[in-house]
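Students often ask why inverse folding is considered easier than folding. One informal answer: many sequences map to the same fold, so there is more than one right answer. In these notes we will look at a single instance of the problem. The structure comes first.
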C-alpha cells in the first residue's frame, strides 16, 4: 500500500534513550515533562509537572487530530 512519509514515520519504534516510555513526551532540563504533537505540519507542545498529565494530553490530541492512529 502507498503511504506518505508522515504516515510511515508513525511506525517507528521508541528510541532506547526514551525516558517516558511514550512517543512525543520527554523530560526537560527543569524536570518537567513536555508533550509534543505535529498538527498540520506545526509542532504543538505543552509542559506538565506530572508525566501522567502529559500522556493524557497527548493521547487526547492524537484522538482528536488522528482518529485512525492508535495513541
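Output (designed amino acids):
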Amino acid at each position: 500500500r502507498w503511504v506518505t512519509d508522515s504516515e510511515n514515520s508513525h511506525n517507528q519504534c521508541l528510541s532506547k534513550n526514551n525516558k517516558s516510555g511514550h512517543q512525543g513526551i520527554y523530560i526537560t532540563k527543569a524536570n518537567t515533562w513536555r508533550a509534543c504533537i505535529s498538527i498540520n505540519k506545526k509542532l504543538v507542545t505543552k509542559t506538565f509537572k506530572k508525566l501522567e498529565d502529559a500522556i493524557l494530553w497527548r493521547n487526547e490530541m492524537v484522538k482528536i487530530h488522528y482518529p485512525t492512529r492508535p495513541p
